Structure formats: C-alpha cells, structure tokens
Amino acid sequence: MNVQKFISMKGKQPIVLITAYDAPFARIVNEAGVDAILVGDSLANNVLGFSDTLPATMDDMIRHTQAVRRGAPDAFIIGDMPFLSYQCSQDEAIRNAGRFLKEGGANAVKLEGGSSFAPLIRRMVESGIPVMGHLGLTPQSVNVFGGYRVQGKDENTARKLLEDAKALEEAGVFAIVLEMVVEEVAKQITESVNVPTIGIGSGRYCDGQVLVLHDALGLNPAFLPKFAKRYANLYEISLKAISQYVEEVRTREFPSEENVFRLGGN
Ligand SMILES: Nc1nc(=O)c2c([nH]1)NC[C@@H]1CN(c3ccc(C(=O)N[C@@H](CCC(=O)O)C(=O)O)cc3)CN21
Ligand SMILES: CC(C)C(=O)C(=O)O
Ligand SMILES: [Mg+2]
C-alpha cells in the first residue's frame, strides 16, 4: 500500500481501515488484511482511560505508533495528529507531522479540520508528508460542538462540508475521513472529490470505512456508538478467562505439573 494505490482504489474497491494502538493488535489487524492502520488519538479514550481524545500528546502518539509499526512491519500506518500538535503554528505542525514519519515509523498523518487548514496541509505535502483529512464530527472540537452530533443535517452545513472536502483535495490530501456525516451528504462529497472518502458513521457510499478497534472487538461494555458494530465480545471473553485464572490459583489447580521446573528434570 502507498498513497497512490490508495487513490487508485477509489470507485474500484472498498478501502478498509481500522485503528490499532499497540503491537499485538497491530499484528492481528495486519494479518486480517486491512488496507491501512490508523493509530488514532482515540488512544486517549480507548487505551489511556480518558473520556475524550483531547489529552493525547505527541509523545503518547509517537510511542504507540512505534509499537504498531513493530507489530506490523509491512503495514501502511497513518498517525493521528493529537489536539494542539498542529493548531498553534505551521512550523510546529510540520515538525510534529515529521516526527510521525521519522520517529514513529508512520507512512502518513491525519489531521482534523476544514478549509482553514488547507495552507498547512499544502506545506506538509510539499515537505514530503502525506496527509489524510478528517471532516464532519471532529472529536478534538467536541467542546465547540457541545457533544458528538451528526453533521451536515441542513443545507448550509452540508455545503460547508462539501467546500471543505474540495479545499482539502486541492491542498493535496490523499484521502478524507468523514465522521458522522449524514449518508446523503457523504455520498455527494464522495462523488465530488477525486480522492477516496473513508467513512465512520457516514453511511454506505463512502469509498472506504474506518472503525475503532475497541468497538469492533467489544472491549468497552459501557458504550458502543450507533454507527459501530461489535464483531466479537472480547470484554466477556477476557473477563471469563481471567476469572478462571483467579479461581484456579485459589483452588491450586494452577500452576499444575506441566508448568513447573524441578530438580534434575526439564
Ligand atoms: N471507542 C470509540 N469509538 C469511536 O467511534 C470514537 C472514539 N472511541 N473516540 C473518538 C471518536 C469519538 N466518537 C464518538 C463519540 C461519541 C459518540 C456518541 O455519543 N454517539 C451517540 C449519540 C449520537 C447522536 O447524537 O445521534 C450514539 O448513540 O451513537 C459518537 C462518536 C467517534 N470516535
Ligand atoms: C475515529 C477515527 C477516524 C479517529 O480519528 C480516531 O480513532 O482517533
Ligand atoms: Mg482521531
């Protein structure tokens, strides 16, 4: 996979992305054959225990991008730029984006935002950093939105989304994530730009889909967004497994003869 192949898949074959945050899961999703792995800033809520994505730092993201790279040496990896790593100044943004490639081992970065980020994105691409855009519900702006709401419900916001998508394409992004955009608007955007759209909660007509790993695997029993699908219930499976371990230590069933080292034996 590379950015040109990504672009060439538009309209031909659905593009499959999923998030991963560590080496063992990166190995699993890579072996399952996803087209790319997103090291999301949703690291903050899914792995670090925060309630939103805002606390993720550059150092967090680099450390976990490195872990994903070690678990999936040949995967196409996209690093998600965390809150305030690219909003303060263009120079700082380019340096931080570059860290994902130089230190993290990522192949590209993603950042949230519309046409006002087009000049920055153009500079990044001209500097040799492939950029994925992210429009619609941009979780780093949850405090401005006042919640996680569907985007593009009226004519004005739908038009703004379309204009933003065209501005990002013009700036040189290789793909655009559309998050929680009403299906009709996501379809229109998909038909109006020449780069692939990757949907999450944005319906059936995007060029690809991205899902949060912990949602797909059912690792969070408390919450599942309406747009997500649980393909397994790892919370229950894990709970059952560890409960059995607890029980077996207490009953001295574990460790058993096969787990022990003895004098003169093996
Ligand atoms: N585990 C996880 N899954 C995600 O999809 C995800 C993250 N984390 N973190 C980053 C963002 C935040 N996202 C979110 C967060 C909350 C809702 C939510 O509260 N949805 C409600 C209400 C939707 C509505 O207003 O209609 C839902 O029931 O889906 C949705 C997406 C999507 N992203
Ligand atoms: C939901 C995806 C697109 C994301 O940005 C993340 O996981 O951080
Ligand atoms: Mg994100």
UniProtKB/TrEMBL annotation:
Gene assigned in the entry: panB
GO biological process: methylation; pantothenate biosynthetic process
Family that this chain belongs to: Belongs to the PanB family.
UniProt GO cellular component terms: cytoplasm
Protein's cellular compartments: Cytoplasm
EC identifiers of the protein: 2.1.2.11
UniProt keyword list: Cytoplasm, Magnesium, Metal-binding, Methyltransferase, Pantothenate biosynthesis, Transferase
Species classification: Bacteria, Thermotogati, Thermotogota, Thermotogae, Thermotogales
Free-text remark on how the cofactor is bound: Binds 1 Mg(2+) ion per subunit.
Entry-linked HAMAP family: PanB
Catalytic activity field: (6R)-5,10-methylene-5,6,7,8-tetrahydrofolate + 3-methyl-2-oxobutanoate + H2O = 2-dehydropantoate + (6S)-5,6,7,8-tetrahydrofolate
Subunit structure: Homodecamer; pentamer of dimers.
Residues reported to bind 3-methyl-2-oxobutanoate: 41-42, 80, 110
Pathway named in the protein's UniProt entry: Cofactor biosynthesis; (R)-pantothenate biosynthesis; (R)-pantoate from 3-methyl-2-oxobutanoate: step 1/2
Binding site for Mg(2+): 41, 80, 112
Molecular function terms, GO-annotated: 3-methyl-2-oxobutanoate hydroxymethyltransferase activity; magnesium ion binding; methyltransferase activity
Active site feature: 179 (proton acceptor)
Name assigned to this protein: 3-methyl-2-oxobutanoate hydroxymethyltransferase
